[in-house]
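Chain A, query sequence.
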Amino acid sequence: MESAQKSPTPVGTPWGIAPFRRYLSAHLISVTGSAMAPLALAYSVIEQGGGAGSLGLVLATNTVPMILFLLAGGVFADRLSRSRLLFLGNLLAAAAQGVLAVSVATGHATTASIAACGFVSGTASSFIGPAAQGAVVQIVPAEHLQQANALLRLPSNAVKVLAPVAGGLVVAASGAAWALAGDAFTFAAAAVLLLGLRLDAPITTSTSALTDLRAGWASFWSRTWLWTYTAAGAVLVAAWLAGFQLLGPLVAASQYAGARDWGLIQAAFACGLLAGTLVCLRWKPYRLLVVAIAAGGALVLPLAAMARGLPLLLVLVAALLAGVGLDVAVVAWTTAFSQHVPQDEQGRLIAFNGIGERLAIPAGYVVTALAAHAWDGRTALLACAAMIAAATVLNLCVPAVHRVNRLTPVDRPRPTHDRREAEQT
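Chain A, predicted structure.
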């Protein structure tokens, strides 16, 4: 089978690397099914008589494992074969979605059983995520990492525009069970493709997972640019989700034409994500981390536009620009992380980053909901926009951020276990 460790001939683009084509194909298949899953999951709860409380429980049980097990996923990704972890993770997700589809189809689904399947799926995701981050670095040469990251984002963003519509048609025509079965099939198909991707396990001299975890935390904390980016991200992500997902529909209902206009705003944002990916296929900025932080600040635009009650057309433009900014930020950040963190530490450090950015989300929802009772929705939305702006500006004031720039092949850091070199990057 293909081995990503060997690259006998130079290639002009990531598409010329056979293991990357296999990995990209598996990713495309998997995200296509996953994009339809949230709608199918919601209607599976509704079909068995559940309401908002039941759906909230199901969504929570899908998210909690990402916090509980992400660190374990990061440790395993730095000790075991990442391709094998990706295979097993997709296989576990396929099994969970398959069981859920059967239970819904046979009428035996309950809130508890749906939540249990969601917990298993969330657990699988907590191992897939860190392994995926490190796998790309093993497959693709450093000079092609940004293009590879953009190519991986391209199908994800495309299906965000198309898959929900397809999922709605499937659910409307055949019921939620068929959409869930389709998701299970895509996970299984991705697992089969990943089985042929043979990546060697990272080289480690550690004797225990706990030692790896401690070393990972020391490495994470020694990189000022990384923990400050994570801290700023915690504020930004919580404010964005609370503002866009929680307050956005409420403000759209009171200031615009409700669900119709809110759907247009979401569609504009999704189109922006897709456009941002296309930008990243061509543009290769030198100041990777500065670009990632500044571009992420574009999320202020739709929140501020709705808070100020601007006409719908201007809100749509703001949402489009926010989508472009977010995708540029994600690709630039992923490239910077891939180039400035040694391969044998990427699983653990991306796990610390992921947990850090997620921890504030529940608190953000609660605080925003309370603020919406004390203030009107537009004022609370403006507060969320101000938090994003403040986090962006403060993060840009960190000197270490300005030293995390694009590396050429000759600049690429050597694999090392010497933690004293960490801050030099």
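Residues 1-9, 414-425 have pLDDT under 50 and may be disordered. The longest helix spans residues 224-255.
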